[in-house]
Amino acid sequence: MTLYLGIDFGTSGARAVAIDDHAGIQAQAEFPLDRQTPELWQEGLWALLDQIPITVRQSIGAIAIDGTSSTVLLCDRSGTPVAEPILYNDARGVTVMETLQEIAPPNHPAIAATSSLAKLLWYARHPKLYPDALHRVATTGLFFLHQADWLGFQLHGQMGISDYHNALKLGYDPEYLFYPEWLRLALPQLFTKFIPYLPHVVKPGTPIAPVTAEMGDRFGLPADCVICAGTTDSIAAFLASGAREPGEAVTSLGSTLVLKLLSRDRVDDARYGIYSHRLGNLWLTGGASNTGGAVLRQFFSDRQLAEFSESIDPNTESPLKYYPLLKPGERFPLNNPELPPRLEPRPNSDVEFLHGLLESMARIEARGYELLQEFGATGLKRVYTAGGGAKNPTWTAIRQRRLNVPVMTPPHTEAAYGAALLARMQDRG
Ligand SMILES: Nc1ncnc2c1ncn2[C@@H]1O[C@H](COP(=O)(O)OP(=O)(O)O)[C@@H](O)[C@H]1O
Ligand SMILES: O=C(CO)[C@H](O)[C@H](O)COP(=O)(O)O
């Protein structure tokens, strides 16, 4: 029996799920990430593989890895990082926004302070932070990679390969499958001393190479176990849900609120933080809001969230109109880096306050889906929920009232399960 392994590197932890040909789970593993460094990612990858029983490992035919979108690093040909990685939520790229706007076409998804391209430009402007690199890369070359690309490299050993999900916010064109001319022309002007290699981009799930002999021997993986191109963590969560029809959507209620609506048509508009990933012949339209569970956690423990939610009547609309944010700045459905949080007035009752927060987040979610459809995405038919908020039935009922379509929790919500499905897909064409 051939098995498929999906590995997810998310915001707070890494997980692995092995599935069989019928998508049934055969083994699972977890590794907490209390910080995000390449050393810990590598340790986590080894620890996850070690936790999978050896009998399962010996049957693995393919592995795919997802990582946080727009977490990037510079490394040399051997994979050794030459500069600190820049994480998915790091907005230091705000200092290069003007340049981004000059080089990229209007409304391009790479025009955002947290995009991979913004981070590449930031590296270009700060060569003094990796002085060693100039010397080292003179002979080996310098490579710009995403977290998932770098983790895949640890297993297949082929430097400089990415997938068109991770590469979207770097500027790669997933429709015509190339780096557009505006990007190719801009690079030599941005990097004065050396130009890093941008990764060669393939379709997510494409077999890249068999596991290296060293890794195969160390973990007891078959010599022909193939390592596939990966994806981003929230697309892996979408794949896990099983949604596949245009009009089906997945809302991730994790630390942030991420919407993904499968559509026949592509929609992109940086003014509202709307962009589209390619999924086969369809488009995964959506955006990521800064509201979500992290704001809830600021006020309530998970136990209080569950307890207070039970006292909320989801059929009654809360009159409180908040914009729940941890700090100023929103990406979608309003793209306004200065938008202030609105969390007043706070009622004396915690239940009423929580009701207002859940209602307001449901309002933002509904506005997000409305906007995607206004811009031409396929009409919303059904919403699956993933993330910590999915286990709150009161919130689901509030969201269903606002969204006016069925809202359901799918049997599988874990990104690692979605990555395993991606690994299984390569075997099925
Ligand atoms: N019962 C609940 N109702 C609503 N939100 C919840 C509940 N339990 C946990 N959460 C929220 O879920 C979030 C964690 O979800 P998770 O998917 O693990 O997030 P991430 O992986 O993005 O960090 C927390 O921020 C927490 O506030
Ligand atoms: O905050 C995140 C960490 O990855 C989200 O998953 C991300 O913003 C969504 O990105 P993408 O649509 O490219 O998967």
From TrEMBL:
Q: What are its GO biological-process terms?
A: xylulose metabolic process
Q: Which keywords, in A-to-Z order, does the entry hold?
A: ATP-binding, Kinase, Nucleotide-binding, Transferase
Q: Which cofactor does it need?
A: a divalent metal cation
Which reaction is recorded as catalysed by this protein?
Answer: D-ribulose + ATP = D-ribulose 5-phosphate + ADP + H(+)
Per its UniProt entry, what is the enzyme's top EC class, as one word?
Answer: transferase
This entry's Enzyme Commission designation comes to 2.7.1.47
| Domain spans labelled Carbohydrate kinase FGGY N-terminal | 3-239
InterPro entries given for it? ATPase_NBD, Carb_kinase_FGGY, FGGY_C, FGGY_N
Citing just one GO molecular function, the answer is: D-xylulokinase activity
An example GO CC term for this entry is: cytosol
* Domain Carbohydrate kinase FGGY C-terminal, first and last residues per copy: 253-425
The UniProt entry's sequence similarity note says: Belongs to the FGGY kinase family.
- This chain's protein is named D-ribulose kinase
Q: Which organism is it from?
A: Oscillatoria acuminata PCC 6304
